[in-house]
Specification:
Elements (H helix, E strand, L loop, with lengths): L26 E4 L5 E4 L2 E3 L4 H11 L6 E2 H9 L7 H16 L4 E4 L2 E4 L7 H17 L3 H13 L12 H27 L3 H14 L4 H13 L3 H18 L6 H11 L35 H12 L7 E6 L6 H11 L8 E5 L10 H11 L11 H12 L5 E7 L2 H4 L10 E6 L10 E4 L5 H12 L1 H5 L2 H10 L4 H12 L6 H9 L12 H12 L4 H10 L7 E2 H8 L3 H13 L4 E4 L2 E3 L2 H15 L2 H26 L22 H10 L1 H10 L3 H13 L1 H5 L4 H18 L2 H17 L3 H17 L3 H17 L3 H18 L2 H17 L3 H18 L2 H17 L3 H17 L3 H18 L2 H14 L5 H18 L3 H18 L3 H14 L1
Parallel strand pairs: 7-10, 7-11, 8-9, 9-10
Antiparallel strand pairs: 1-2, 2-3, 4-6, 5-6, 12-14, 13-14
Helix pairs in contact: 1-2, 1-3, 2-3, 4-5, 5-6, 6-7, 6-8, 7-8, 8-9, 8-10, 9-10, 9-41, 11-12, 13-14, 16-18, 16-19, 18-20, 19-21, 21-25, 22-24, 22-25, 23-24, 23-26, 26-27, 26-29, 28-29, 28-31, 29-31, 29-32, 31-32, 32-33, 32-34, 33-34, 34-35, 34-36, 35-36, 36-37, 36-38, 37-38, 38-39, ...
């Protein structure tokens, strides 16, 4: 990877100046993503990868003729096959049949594409970029930004995706470079018009993807600085300088260094565009409505009624309309259709969310509010943590704006109340399976099934008029058998449309057989089940079994590997079954190798499994195999991340294997990708036969709790298994579950709770001689005692932990306790022995290749070296730990290490640097680690700010820290009072 200080690359025009007028064939070609050809709305077959490579080479020549030799070189390079010329001719012949002879022409022994400029997405992008350049030159920045966004929106992933050959490789790199240049230009324009806060998140992602691209770093620094985040802007420079030195052995280019100096000087000119004051950032206009269905049918009265209410929302009290009805009745379809028609009445935007109210875990209002606030242009750093604060900020943000909010699939009124705008001129559309009778002021709409005429019209639009004309009575029988339920009609019609050999009568006869559908089509889920019976009844036995069993698993989706384990099948066999289910629309493919059910389909699948079709033992075995898969795989991740740790030897045995990984990074990728599903499996595995494995899965997935990324879900799972193990009377499982909960409380800063749980875990574990929680609880109680300044207790607990770990032969556990004991020695003034203990722990970790826990050891050593005033060595240890924590996605420890680096700089008198580290620590620790740790960072930040003369800000930080400590009853409150005393005296 090289440094980006060379000349800028411009993508030349692709069109041939000699090409004359081209007949409009309705064709459109895409190269800014997978290479595709479309005619109207139909995607045309593009053939094999080599055939797509030939099409690519012709499209990018802009109408100029390519000889056979040039095409062979483009596809195969220097090593073409012996029959390359014949292959080229075959590919060209196939493409000509698909595209037409007027489009792909033979010319002078070669081939050429005859298409107009608007037929190729690259040409369109070039036109937009050229127009943007002219608009910017003329001072019309707004139009320039719009045009550049239009150009960039034409990309659909990687250009020329999966197209082989040297020519495609070269063009792919060239187009990616151009895409980055366009993005940089658009971001530069964002900053020129004052949209610096909005640019930060995108620039952060881009600098992560292109770490050596200094222009992106410059833009990020400016965006942060103009957002009032000077410390973060300086941190970008520090990271860049370190990266360039490590990767390339060079310093940042002069422009970047000059920018750093301007930020350090707090250059006022840098705070606005060079040529004029920054205009107010234009409000973000969200447009989140899903696409409306093209074959929307009927519901005219409802469309008119709801549309009239939305049209009169301006100037009135905020309008709320709540649609209720059984699943599959078309609530979402109607709401989306009405919302699209009403868009003109809400010029400031439309928000949409699926609240997942029909599922087991409805969306949390605070999570939805966070997403809405981001969509409305609120920076992450400005979004508060609590539900009430987010709701208040949300209403304030909407004040004076006209926004339509579509709240789809709501669970109940309590879930949506915080999400209502509450502002005149705004409106909310709500859909739910329950009537919102307790939603004050709402206009309630009960949506029933379609009339026979509407149902037949919908069926006809999907199947086609020509197939219905001769079988109208049979078509009426079909929609009647569907109970006139829109979702059922859509499924039946789609199946018929996909089977040209079927007549409508064939489908009607299948539906007439009540053995293939429920006896009655009534209100509620039964009607939904009847619609899904249409597809389910056509499944082969193996497909039907897969459909039933996969629906048992909780979690938003399931990976192919997990599905194979649940079904007890080879991966390729499971994939065939899953893809067949996708084809029948009973399962969705969320991404390659991942599958999910619509929430109502999942309920239907479970009802099938709970009938006589699956014995209870088969259902339990399927979930047991899934639990085995997650436990075995998570244990493997733990072993890779913590080599030599004997925890994995204490876990319950599994009968089914998990995945294996080439390295720890791939293992962590899996763990975090599967976090929600894994924790859902823990909560689901409460029966006595699986409970112990569920508890052990929490142990093996410890990273999910420690990292902060999934701490709430991890805590919920720990509470669930603790309650289940207590109810089952299993002290072994309960002791381990309680220990997991103690760890959650400790990481969240709830030390009294953590100590009580750890004490209970030790008691339970001793009754059944379970050494694992005994070791862990003693270690945990030692560090908790340190935080609570109970140093004698802490030393006793940690000495007990060291002995327990040694008796178990768990050297990483022993090292952990040694490093924790180092901190006790440090707190009691025994600095030399603290350094020795920490180094002893690190020596054990390093001998085992234990990078993550070795970082914890270096963290402890860094603290001891700081107190010993060996500040350079302390910085080295903490920076080494910081790198590992970031690499391991341990946000809690990353934030705490930044805090400790701030303490080192405070000791060295480097107050500006200390302030920078403290701010970064606050950012990283947002929402994790608990208030006690936040109070510690605020105290350090106040010291740093006081050191650089920003005494006002320092006082604010200390007052906030004092409030935290007083509420917690922490001894640190007295330290902060002392810091505040001079100001009080003044």
């Amino acid at each position: 990877m090289g440094r980006d200080d060379g000349p800028r690359v411009r993508v030349p025009e692709q069109r041939s100046p000699e090409q004359g007028p081209v007949e409009d064939t309705g064709l459109h070609f895409c190269v800014l993503g997978p290479v595709r050809a479309r005619r109207g709305g139909e995607t045309l077959p593009s053939g094999s990868p080599q055939q797509r490579a030939l099409l690519t080479a012709l499209l990018l020549r802009g109408g100029r003729t390519a000889t056979a030799a040039e095409l062979i070189d483009a596809i195969w390079g220097e090593d073409p096959p012996s029959q390359a010329l014949a292959a080229v001719r075959t590919y060209a012949s196939r493409l000509r049949k698909t595209l037409g002879p007027l489009t792909l022409a033979s010319d002078s022994g070669g081939y050429a594409m005859r298409i107009g400029p608007e037929a190729l997405d690259l040409s369109v992008a070039q036109d937009r970029a050229a127009e943007a350049e002219k608009a910017r030159a003329s001072g019309d920045r707004g139009r320039a930004r719009t045009l550049l966004n239009e150009a960039l929106a034409l990309w659909d992933g990687e250009a020329l995706a999966s197209v082989p050959g040297p020519y495609a490789d070269y063009q792919r790199n060239r187009l990616e470079e151009w895409r980055l240049q366009l993005t940089e230009t658009r971001l530069d324009l964002d900053l020129e018009v004052g949209c610096h806060a909005e640019a930060v998140s995108e620039l952060t992602a881009l600098t992560a993807a292109h770490p050596l691209r200094e222009r992106l770093r410059e833009l990020l620094m400016v965006a942060l600085y103009r957002s009032g985040r000077q410390a973060e802007a300086l941190a970008v420079y520090a990271d860049t300088r370190r990266l360039l030195s490590e990767e390339l052995g060079v310093d940042p280019r002069p422009e970047l260094s000059a920018l750093q100096q301007r930020i350090l000087r707090a250059d006022e000119e840098l705070a606005r565009p060079a040529d004029e004051p920054a205009p107010a950032a234009a409000p973000v206009r969200p447009a989140q409505l899903p696409a409306t269905v093209p074959d929307f049918t009927g519901r005219a009265a409802f469309v008119r009624e709801l549309g009239d209410r939305l049209a009169t929302a301006e100037g009135s009290v905020m309008a709320v309309s709540a649609l209720a009805g059984i699943g599959g009745v078309g609530k979402t379809t109607l709401a989306v259709h009405v919302a699209h028609q009403a868009r003109r009445h809400f010029p400031d935007g439309q928000l949409y969310v699926d609240l997942q109210g029909a599922g087991a875990r409805a969306a949390e209002p605070e999570t939805v509010l966070g997403a809405f606030l981001r969509a409305l242009g609120t920076a992450d750093s400005a979004i508060p943590d609590s539900l009430d604060e987010r709701a208040a900020l949300y209403r304030s943000t909407l004040d004076g704006r006209r926004i339509l909010v579509l709240l789809d699939n709501a669970h109940d009124a309590a879930q949506i109340r915080p999400l209502l705008p509450g502002t005149a001129g705004c409106a909310a559309l709500v859909t739910s399976r329950v009537r919102m009778v307790d939603l004050a002021g709402a206009h309630l709409v009960d949506l029933d099934v379609m009339s026979p005429e509407e149902a037949l019209q919908l069926f006809t639009r999907i199947v086609g008029q020509e197939r219905i004309n001769s079988e109208r009575e049979a078509a009426l029988d079909v929609v009647a058998a569907c109970g006139f339920l829109p979702l059922a009609i859509r499924i039946a019609a789609s199946r018929l449309a996909a089977r040209r050999t079927w007549t409508v009568s064939v489908l009607a006869a299948k539906l007439a057989d009540e053995r293939r559908r429920l006896d009655e089509l009534q209100a509620g889920d039964l009607a939904v089940k009847a619609t899904f019976e249409l597809g389910y009844g056509q499944l082969e036995p193996a497909q039907a079994r897969a459909f039933r069993l996969l629906g048992l698993a909780d979690g938003p989706d399931i990976s192919l590997a997990a599905a194979a384990a649940l079904l007890d099948l080879e991966t390729h066999t499971a994939e065939d079954l899953l893809e067949a289910l996708v084809d029948t629309s009973l399962v969705e493919s969320a991404a390659p190798g991942r599958y999910r059910y619509h929430d109502l389909v999942r309920l239907y699948a479970r009802s099938c499994a709970e009938r006589d079709e699956e014995a209870p033992e088969e259902r339990e075995s399927a979930l047991s195999r899934l639990l085995d898969f997650y436990l075995a795989t998570a244990a493997g991740v733990y072993a890779l991340e913590r080599p030599g740790d004997r925890l994995v030897d204490h876990l319950e045995p599994t009968e089914h294997a998990g995945l294996s990984f080439a390295n720890r990074h791939a293992a962590l990728d899996w763990l975090y990708a599967e976090a929600t599903n894994l924790l859902a499996c823990v909560c689901q595995a409460s029966p006595p036969a699986t409970l112990r494995r569920a508890v052990d899965l929490l142990y093996a997935a410890l990273d999910l709790g420690e990292s902060g990324a999934n701490s709430k879900q991890y805590e919920a799972a720990a509470l669930a298994v603790r309650e289940a193990s207590h109810d089952c009377g299993d002290p072994r499982a309960e002791g381990r579950a309680v220990m997991s909960l103690a760890n959650v409380h400790q990481l969240a800063g709830r030390f009294d709770h953590a100590d009580r749980e750890a004490e209970e875990a030790m008691r339970l574990a001793n009754t059944v001689e379970d050494l694992l929680p005994v070791c862990w609880a003693a270690n945990a109680r030692g560090i908790i005692a340190l935080y609570q300044n109970r140093h004698a207790d802490g030393e006793a607990f940690l000495t007990q932990a060291i002995e327990a770990f040694r008796s178990d032969g768990n050297r990483p556990g022993e090292a952990s306790a040694l490093c924790n004991l180092s901190r006790i020695h440090l707190a009691t003034g025994r600095t030399a022995s603290a350094i020795t203990l920490a180094r002893s722990g690190i020596e054990i970790y390093d001998s085992l290749g234990h990078a993550l826990r070795g970082a914890n050891g270096r963290y402890a050593l860094g603290l001891a070296l700081t107190q010993n005033m060996n500040l350079s060595a302390a910085t080295d240890q903490l920076n080494e730990a910081l790198t590992v924590f970031r690499d391991s996605r341990q946000r809690l420890w990353e934030g705490m290490t930044l805090f400790r680096l701030a303490e080192v700089d405070l000791a060295a008198g480097h107050f500006a640097q200390a302030a920078q580290y403290s701010e970064l620590a606050l950012t990283v620790l947002r929402g994790i680690g608990g208030e006690w740790r936040r109070g510690n960072v605020l105290t350090a930040l106040g010291r740093a700010l006081d050191g650089i003369g920003q005494t006002g800000r320092a006082q604010v930080c200390w007052h906030e820290a004092l409030g935290i400590y007083q509420e917690l009853g922490s001894q640190e409150a007295q330290v902060v009072r002392t810091l505040l005393a001079p100001a009080t005296a003044t």
